[in-house]
């Protein structure tokens, strides 16, 4: 899930030009704060939902609107340069997009069968796998000294095509567990993801000078909003967490870890090079878990949203650790 996007990929590229040094230093400090504070915030939010579930009764209907706020913030951070990056490297972006929507959904289905998950949890794990990439992957790619431009391009395209890809994939892989209304799911993704992103992009284009002043606040607004989403999701299934928490955690760790490894491997096997392979790892292994939680709550049950809530915490922790290891290996 999103916490912050690097302002300009070429500024934050670890091997970029000297004029980007100041911007890179500031981006590095901000990015490190994001990947450090965000998991702690989400953990605290989950604890609140678990300890005081009665205080959030009836809040489930607010989750799509909260997600819309997060996606609007993502749209505001976008620039036309993000889309030029797609046009400049269509093969690499297409490879990243294909790997994302093949590896993670397939892993979700395989893990659900391997662990013999109950139908609600199985559908939730698969739905996480079918979600688009989370933009926190951009920050983690930067910290790992990976190809930030490729990361931003893949994350952008995976979000824009989600209404066309996520519902049919969910039906194909999760339909054996629970009924899936693809038409309704398409509508929900359009309303909670695509329209807010486009609205944010429009605001950035029309009022860029004013938006620039607000950009430092947006990551924290997104982080707090995601925290509220996690609180609501956890509160809705607090009773079930006590019996299913360990099973869900094992499923999430396997899903995320194998996604990171296979994403990196896909980049190396196709000859993309080390920096691009690192970007592939995080674009495949890190998901828009907020969208998965919202869709699971709306179309399945609060229990089905539990894997997304756990994934939201874990993929930021594992991503930050992997990035630190890769960066230290370079040095």
TrEMBL record:
Annotated protein name in UniProt: Bile acid:sodium symporter family protein
Compositionally biased intervals (Basic and acidic residues): 1-18
Entry membrane topology: Multi-pass membrane protein
Organism: Streptomyces apricus
Signal peptide: none
Keywords, ordered alphabetically: Membrane, Transmembrane, Transmembrane helix
Principal cellular location given in the protein's record: membrane
Subcellular localization, as worded in the UniProt entry: Membrane
Top-level taxon of origin: Bacteria
Keyword rRNA processing attributed: no
